[in-house]
Amino acid sequence: MPKTRRNNRLALYAVLNIAFLVAMAIAYGIGAAQNPRLLYLFLMFALCSTPVIDLDGLNGRYSLLGIFLAMYFVMYGLGDFSALIGGPPTEKSTALLSDTEAVILVGGVLVTLLYRWVVSITGTGVRRTPRDWSRSAILLMGILFWVVGTYSIYEWNVHIVTDTTNEAFRKGIQSHGSYEISAYILGQMMQPLGVLLIAYAWRTSRSAALLWLVLAIVVLQVVLGFIIDQKGLAMMGGTLVVVTCVLLEGRAPKLWLAGGLAYILLVYPVFVAARVEIHGTRGIARAAILENFGKILQIAIASTDRVATGPDRQMTFIERLSLRGSVETFVEKTGTDVPFANGHTLTPLIATFIPKVVWSDKPDVPTGQLFNKQFHVTESDDIFLSPSHLGELYWNFGWPGVFVGMTLIGAILGWVGGRFNLANGATITRLLVTAVTIKELIVGFEGDIASIYVVWLRSLAGIGLLHLIFARAPITKRWFAAHSGADTGSQSPALVAVRAFPNLLT
Q1: Most CB contacts within 10 A, which of 104, 118, 339, 454?
Q2: Which helix (H) or strand (E) is 87 found in, with range?
Q3: pLDDT by residue (tens digit) across 268-300?
Q4: Host H or E run for residue 358
């Protein structure tokens, strides 16, 4: 980066941090919060705003670091900022910087340092003739993947595992064979890939018909998420479309972002009310929700005010995203009230590519339930709590887990950011790898490590296989001339093979 431009970026970084400091002072003056975490909050913003110094576009080498640190601030800092205006205290300790805050800050610093180092030693991903799929293959496979994935998700959540309880899960698994269960799990992994393929086809062709198809998919995702009580699934369609636009074009789609804001303000409260009133109090079966969708939607809308106020109110969107409480629980209780897990929750990673039909007793650790049970957060055995990757690392190994684990996370994100840089050539393979990494490793940072990384690794394997099958290899005129068989009036076997299987030239 030229020296003048870098100086301008450093000045912008300084201005942003001064502005945030002023905003903190104003918010604190308005709300007079109890136990404000002023030093921690300022250090968090200073850390999470560092990508502006080197950011080379929203789809460049440092884009993943920018997205990760933005999410990191939302997960571990936004709640503290909102508490300045009068929310409940976010930290029990009155020390200038608590142990929990030290863990969070050090974890973020490690990811940042390793990301930058790996990007500096990784190729830029530039190819003179990058291989891509044909447009027809992208669209056909996208529709196929989305249809198969949507069917698998619906069948799994409506007819196989009909509830969130352990009993419902056991019953559903036992009533179907291992091959069938494996097929449904694989099918569900196809859906986000299908959305990305269709969104890519739309943005590269700008077809009006494909725009309507994308809009229909986004709406159907919301409907399906409402039926099976999965807010993340409902948001996934629109989120992946926004990610596709940003990664391909290097700019944010304003209308789609406005739609996302409308979802948060208007639709998200309805989902919260449905979880309490429809799935909880009334216990209406998921299959019945589809049959009486209009009536049940009206009940959920009518219940939004009741579940949003009072002593039993549900968490707001910002509170739901905050993971600080989980890390605080691990830091305070692990090693004293609860023993270190010593890698137990990470054991499913060893069987990532071994199907259950081959290894029937392969490790399966319900980390979210185990967190709830061992730390006595609630009395229910069916509650899954989000440990966050940072919290789970501390739960397993303490500070060494934070140092090693967050270092590896930074290295992985840096490798993807440097190697699959879309700013230097957009292909469907680069988009799929980058988008799946954002979905699983960054947005999924709130969940447990094993299940997230198993899905990510399997997705990368699937994307690699699709690339080998569908990506077209560049073939030079000189190669054709050498193998065309022009002198003998016949084509060489090599030319016939390449025309049939173009990816032999890799």
Answers
A1: 104
A2: none
A3: 889 988 888 888 888 888 889 988 999 999 999
A4: none
Of 339, 328, 401, 398, whose CA–CA distance to 370 is shortest? 339
In a domain, 63, yes or no: yes
The mean pLDDT of the chain is 86
Contacts of 87 (CB under 8 A, 6+ apart): 31, 33, 79
Q: DSSP 3-state assignment of 338?
A: strand
What is the separation of C-alpha 33 from the centre of its chain, rounded to a whole number of angstroms?
Answer: 32
Contact 442, 67 (CB under 8 A): yes
Residue 376 lies inside a defined structural domain of this protein: no
Domain boundary at 95, 121, 147, which? 121
- Taking the alpha carbons at both ends of the chain, their separation in whole angstroms is 33
* 3-class DSSP string for 306-336: HHHCCCCCCCCHHHHHCCHHHHHHHHHHECC
Q: Which residue has the tokens 């980066």?
A: 1
Q: Across the strands, what pairs with 334? A: 338
Cα radius of gyration (the chain): 25
Which range of residues forms the domain containing residue 91?
3-121
Position 504 scores a pLDDT of 37
Residue 107 placed within a domain? yes
pLDDT at 128: 53
CA–CA distance, 28 with 195 (Å, rounded to integer): 43
Q: Which of 121, 155, 170 is the last residue of a domain?
A: 121
Look up residue 190 and give its two tokens. Answer: 């196809």
**For range 100-104, the mean pLDDT:** 96
Q: Could you tell me how far CA 448 lies from the centroid of its own chain? A: 12
Evaluate whether residue 65 is within a structural domain: yes
Give the number of other Cβ atoms within 10 Å of residue 190's Cβ. Answer: 24
Q: Identify which of 48, 28, 30 has the alpha carbon closest to the alpha carbon of residue 38.
A: 28
Contacts of 161 (CB under 8 A, 6+ apart): 168, 169, 172, 173
The dihedrals phi and psi of 199, each to the nearest 5 degrees, come to: -65, -40
Q: Containing H/E element for 408?
A: helix 399-419
Number of domains present in the structure of the chain: 2
